Give the backbone structure.
Amino acid sequence: MLPFHDPVADEFTQVNELIIRQLHSDVPMVENIGHYLIEAGGKRLRPLLVLLVARALNYQGQHHLDLAAIIEFIHSATLLHDDVVDMSSLRRGRPTVNAEWGNAPSVLVGDFLYSRSFQMMVRIGNMDVMTILSSTTNIIAEGEVQQLINAKDPDLSEADYREVIRKKTAVLFAAACEVAAAIAGADQATRAALGEYGLEVGLAFQLVDDALDYRGDTETLGKNVGDDLAEGKPTLPLIYAMSQSAEPERNIIRQAIQNGDASKLEDIVAIVDATGAMEYTLKAARDAVSRALLKLEVLPASRFRQAMQELAEFALARDH
């Protein structure tokens, strides 16, 4: 575990145990795939945010544990569906579920995780929670569809790219913070501020993730370097590099995006570096974290708030 897990380490363990219990199904394949996906690990930052926000607001109940598991189930469902759409073969250093079991089981178990999360929400019985999370899952789905439409489009604008990562990634970080604030009885201003904190942290994570696709290595990342290029995804490093390149270099990137072709990855990395696109992308992430940290001022000083600050800063320092 990372240091910012420490203030809620015991509860984090309880959430992991709850996740395993809630994967129960009479259909063995559902359990097998669910366990394979969950046990692959990951940083579990979204459920961690639920725990930290709840405790930062002095919540004394138990529903934050359920909400943390719900958020992880929603996230895991999106990963299952993402990997099918993207035809990914590696995630978190292991073969993806679709690579091991096939596309159909991946989609259907993703559906199971979504439906199980809503069963758990109903048991909590909080209409604010239902409103936030039902809206969030709908926005995520829109983001996924929009990303699919944008694939292999070298003319995608930075504004359109940012809108997709807001919907596809950042809104679930925001929801994790906002639902925790809701069950803690926070006022609307506090809920909104913490939702904005989560949104900015989510944006930073996605921006850094997109940068690492052109700077990381497969072993560290746990996924194939150049996957975004192979899928024809016009992410910010490419969008900015094209805006700053001469025609020959711009055409190399355009053709790679249009064809979903990573064969010239080395050349494209060189263009990304030469144009300052990597630094531009990382600065955008730093700016998002700076905005996130300002939102923490709505919370009283505590080790939980400090952990939230460290989590946001981790977004910039990570290499996977």
User: Anything to note?
Assistant: The chain has one domain: 6-317. The two ends are 14 Å apart (CA to CA). The mean pLDDT is 92.
